[in-house]
Amino acid sequence: MNNKQKFSEVGRSVRKVDAMGLATGRAKFTDDYEMPGMLHAKLLRSPHAHARIRSIRTAKARALPGVAAVLTYKDVPRVPFTTAGQGYPEPSPYDDFILDDKVRFVGDKVALVAAETDEIAGEALKLIEVEYEELPAVLDPRKAMRSSAPVIHDEKECYIAIPVPYEPERNRAARVEAVVGNVEKGVMEAEVAVEDEFENQTASHSALEPHCALSWLDENDRLNIISSTQVPYHARRIVSRALQIPVKRIRVIKPRLGGGFGGKQEVLLEPYVGILTLKTGRPVKMRLTRKEVFTSARVRHNMITKVQVAARKDGELTAIDLYALSNTGAYGTHGLTVASNVGTRTLTMFRCPNMRFSSDVVYTNLSVSGAYRGYGGTQGILATAITMDDLAERLGMDPVDFYLKNIIGGGAEVPILKELGEGPVLGQPRVSSCELAACIKAGMEAIGWKKKRGRPGGGRFRRGIGMSVMMQGSSIPYIDMGSAFIKMNDDGSFNLLMGATDIGQGSDTVLAQMAAEVLTVKTDDIIVYSSDTDLTPFDVGAYASSTTYLSGAAVKQTAEKVREQILHVGAALLNTTPGKVHLSGGCVIGPGGKSVTLKEVGTSSLYEKDQFQISASASSISHESPPPFAAHFVEVEVDRATGKVRVLEYVQAVDCGTPINPVLARGQAIGALINGISYALVEQYIYNSKGAMLNPGYGYYKIFCTKDIPKITTIFVPSYEPTGPFGAKSVGEVCISGPLPAISNAIYDAVDVRLHRTPFTPDKVLEAIHARRRG
Amino acid sequence: MKKIKLTITVNGKKHTLRIAPNLRLLDLLRDELRLTGTKEGCGIGECGACTVILDGKAVNSCLVLAGRCDGSEIITIEGLARDGALHPLQQSFIDHGAVQCGFCTPGMILSAKALLDENQRPTEKDIRVAIAGNLCRCTGYKQIVQAIQTVADREKTP
Q1: B4-79: which CATH number, 3.10.20.30, 3.90.1010.10, 3.30.1330.10, 3.10.100.10?
Q2: What is the ipTM of this complex?
Q3: Chain A: nearest CA to B70, how far in angstroms?
Q4: Which of A126, A485, A516, B82 sits CB 3.0–4.6 Å from A497 for a disulfide?
Q5: Is the pTM here over 0.95, yes or no?
Q6: Which of B42, B129, B139 sits opposite A697 (nearest CB)?
Q7: Which of A24, A503, A713 best tests the B interface by mutation, with the highest count of B CBs <10 A?
Q8: Residue B32 DSSP one-character state
């Protein structure tokens, strides 16, 4: 471990570079932009889960004063595309159209309106006359692949652009299978084996800012789009495909973003404002209502997971067999990759010779699933961590000892990654840094595991304690790319231009700290601009926990190139050679301690001698996806009379490599944790028998507020990732995956019932307690 | 719709306007006065992003008709910093890492201000209750409560 290295700007909790604007209300989010002559757009949404549009009449809507355009499927290009903002070619099927003559879920788009005001656009929607032919719907993923099931994607155009199984005729959007060793043999060799089944619920990302986009044509007839996107470059490419206009005619600008969590890794609005701007020649803004965010944006994949784990008497794992039936909803966005991550994010953690992961990803006529913080890891860890808790008990082992016996350590080879990775894998995949064992020990100490476990107490309120372990990745190896550009100014400050996408997580700050570290200046001296497809170099965007690790590497390399140029100019000013000078404390220092400041270097390079722009660009791809790890420990109180579960205390110990900015890293860890606890206890989509969501608002879709927050302790264990910039790996997603199984295990410790279906609402807990009493 | 006349003081500045009778206070602030620091997260009073201070009370400006604010005093996030100096709550939010995406921040700060204006010695529970109507999905709230507590503690000591 090489964490003793001394850094100046890295490792410090410098103030967020955008904090001032955000705290004073001056920061501009997409909806805060306006253009003269701007129209307001709205989509008519389907009331049916599955229906064909027999006729659609728009004359009355068009006649309404103030309406500028009404578009139906007859007016837009019929080009299949995916809204999933992923690398190209996307591993998601091209199964969506801007508008179609078929609707596939309640909330699907039917027609598009632009009007002078939001209110008129809303009135116009009511005047569109649609005649639907209702079709039988698939509302249960378990029934999707039955031969009697209606086919959701019966259009001939849908396909997937990469060579993977895709069978829309069976409602199967993707299939995954990966094996290491021989699972049947592993089970035979075991003395104890446990099999179980779990189901996690659909959930909303609930970023506080609803999706928004604004487009206009500039003086060169180019389509400009400001969008609340996590993926500006993918948005540009997908708009190009959907609207059939060249990439060079499109510019996507990302302003401040009000959170994403995966929900804005989808190109949901850009094609709609874009086509309206092309048709009307006018600026167009579209903003989802909160209700639409719930019903028509993206959700976490609901999955039914089946797992078998087997071990010898001494606790050594001999087999893990994991299967996920993943409900991708009406469109297959992120279907394949979220499913494969169910396996990746669980099996990687264990030293076990026999492992299998398989998955069927099925279409249903329900909400469309997509990327969501945790990205399959959440679903996989739910299943494995509860089953392993069970297995440990049957072995007579403390789960802590069971994990310490079976988890990987630093330098471990991970053969399953070869079978499950998204990109090509060269050589034997391995994990360089891993302090999971240290996380388990630190967390266990902090919560008082030994003295609290197995002591539920008596009476109505019982206490219990549970744990889980989890991991994520840092970027997608050989697929993701980040790049940066830095130029130097005459006062010794620098512009850092990046495609890396700050969506609120603080990447502008963290990446500026890295540039400042290399250039030996303060973070304040780095002026950050992200992201704009015309002005900033390419980056895949904010997803796959890639930014700190991957875009960070690009920024570091860029700054190192700039440093070389500075040394050249500095050496000339000091009448010496570049080999004899170095950069320190914002000065180029030569022999005998003679020095010039960065201001002198910058001014000289622009105005005085052999003038040139000190500047550089560098790109980075990743060869590994180093996992951050975490161990979670939770103490709960269960009310046996009502079934209500209250979290009393939560301890998380995290290995994220070097936290580049400890306050921001902590913010990511706690934010993910609270989202995870909220998901485990209160959040859920309630559908009626026709597939309509009944609770599309915070009144009935509860998310945690300040009153719900338990005592939380977050520990960062010392760690250093040798392949990461300054020893860093990711921290954004990992901690969301622990609460589901940790809380379930704690409930078991308290009241002796295992919960398999999430969320752990009082009705489910009470039912389980009653079922146990009945025996 | 017939417009109505409205006189309203926003951040100490008096405005006289003619507005539609169904205009929300939120729209008056954002669209008519271009004070876009006030955010819309749900439009039905469930998320708190549009919180402003109306005659001393924190309110969801999406639930208030502008027309009923005749003669009222409003404070928005833009009205907190004075002569370039941040309000102590703004500074404390920044210092504690209580700002992540920042979309809930204006409403959160104004709910906190309304609390501290009324109760100079709030307990942690008072703080949690005062901002319970302001949802945040990024931070997990812990840093926000600490940021407010720090300001309250500082103001307690003479």
Answers
A1: 3.10.20.30
A2: 0.98
A3: 24
A4: A485
A5: yes
A6: B42
A7: A24
A8: I
